[in-house]
């Protein structure tokens, strides 16, 4: 949903900044790499210590690089397959750092094994949700569903809650409960999204297999050479 509605707004806002970086000679790949490094640093240095406010500030400064890199590549007319691969792969790394950092806090100073498990579930389910789309597309299916909780939702819900929960350090009472609530919402939402995507791929695969039989229309092909592709 955010990817559909908020992307256009952020594209308008971030385009001048992307143009400035290009004028300074910065490449889209450098922005992808530095942005991921910044998110990882914010998540893995601050979150395991329970420093949610400053961790979220650092992550927020860098996470928007994921919208800037593609914008730069498009302005250059050089959006590439390599760039798409690098962007998506490093998205997975950044997400792992965010939920891994939260899991480390709950396994240590936060002392809550249930929330540690919920954080790990958010990490794993987010990766699997993204994989369903990548794998479905690799076997030539359109995967024409985004689902309830895409990456943008996972990030916004978790980061807004972590940022506000961090205000506990400054004496705001009861606010720390926002983070556990957000983690449960992301966990349940990711599970629902996984179900939505699996059901869609199952239907599309069945339709494509029927169409591929003699007498049927040809199935839509992606970038793999066989309908099974490579794992
Ligand atoms: C007083 C409190 C202090 C609080 C401190 C600061 C708090 C700040 C809190 C939050 C800011 C969160 C910002 C998060 C922005 C996320 C932007 C982003 O990177 O989104 C990425 C997303 C997807 O990009 P891609 O197309 O590159 O990725 C694809 C995707 O990953 C697919 O995964 P899937 O979805 O399938 O699981 C993969 O399949 C694919 O491979 C991959 O390529 O980009 C977008 O979706 C674009 C829309 C971004 C919308 C951002 C909205 C930000 C909105 C609100 C910010 C709210 C700030 C409120 C602060 C409140 C504090 C006062
Ligand atoms: N280093 C990069 C990063 C991205 N791209 C291209 O942008 C697309 C992603 O756009 P976002 O707005 O989500 O960043 C990606 O699929 C690539 O086509 C690139 O070329 N180089
Ligand atoms: Mg990007
Ligand atoms: Mg990305």
In short:
With 231 residues, the chain is an all-alpha fold.
Describe this entry's structure for a reader:
The protein is an all-alpha fold and 231 residues long. It has helices at residues 2-23, 28-46, 52-63, 65-76, 81-107, 113-138, 151-165, 178-212. It has eight helices and no strands. 73% of the residues lie in helices and 0% in strands. Helix 2 runs antiparallel to helix 3 (52-63) and helix 2 (28-46) packs parallel to helix 5 (81-107). The chain has a single domain (2-212), classed as Up-down Bundle (Four Helix Bundle (Hemerythrin (Met), subunit A)), CATH 1.20.120.
User: Given the structure, what is the number of helices?
Assistant: 8
Give the count of structural domains: 1
Fraction of residues in helix: over 70%
| Low-pLDDT ranges | none
Dominant shape: globular
What's the count of strands? 0
Q: Which topology does CATH recognise? A: Four Helix Bundle (Hemerythrin (Met), subunit A)
CATH superfamily membership, which one?
CDP-alcohol phosphotransferase transmembrane (TM) domain
Q: Span between N and C termini?
A: 29 Å
Mean pLDDT: 93
Q: How would you summarize the topology of this molecule?
A:
Layout: H1 2-23, H2 28-46, H3 52-63, H4 65-76, H5 81-107, H6 113-138, H7 151-165, H8 178-212
The structure holds ligand LH5YIG7M, the ligand Nc1ccn([C@@H]2O[C@H](COP(=O)(O)O)[C@@H](O)[C@H]2O)c(=O)n1 and magnesium ion (2 copies).
The ligand Nc1ccn([C@@H]2O[C@H](COP(=O)(O)O)[C@@H](O)[C@H]2O)c(=O)n1 binds near residues 70 and 73.
């Amino acid at each position: 949903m955010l990817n559909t509605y908020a992307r256009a707004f952020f594209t308008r806002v971030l385009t001048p900044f992307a143009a400035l970086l290009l004028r300074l000679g910065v490449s889209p790949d450098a922005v992808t790499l530095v942005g991921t490094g910044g998110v990882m640093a914010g998540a893995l240095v601050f979150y395991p210590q329970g420093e949610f406010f400053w961790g979220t500030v650092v992550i927020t400064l860098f996470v928007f690089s994921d919208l800037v890199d593609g914008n730069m590549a498009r302005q250059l007319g050089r959006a590439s397959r390599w760039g798409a691969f690098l962007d998506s792969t490093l998205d997975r790394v950044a997400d792992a750092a965010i939920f891994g950092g939260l899991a480390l806090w709950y396994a240590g100073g936060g002392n809550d094994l249930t929330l540690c498990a919920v954080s790990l579930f958010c990490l794993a389910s987010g990766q699997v949700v993204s994989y369903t789309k990548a794998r479905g597309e690799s076997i030539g299916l359109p995967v024409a569903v985004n689902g309830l909780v895409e990456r943008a939702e996972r990030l916004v819900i978790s980061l807004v809650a972590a940022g506000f929960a961090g205000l506990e350090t400054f004496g705001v009472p009861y606010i720390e409960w926002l983070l556990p609530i957000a983690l449960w919402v992301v966990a349940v939402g990711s599970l629902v999204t996984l179900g939505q995507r699996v059901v869609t791929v199952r239907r599309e695969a069945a339709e494509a297999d029927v169409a591929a039989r003699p007498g049927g229309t040809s199935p839509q092909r992606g970038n793999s050479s066989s309908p099974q592709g490579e794992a």
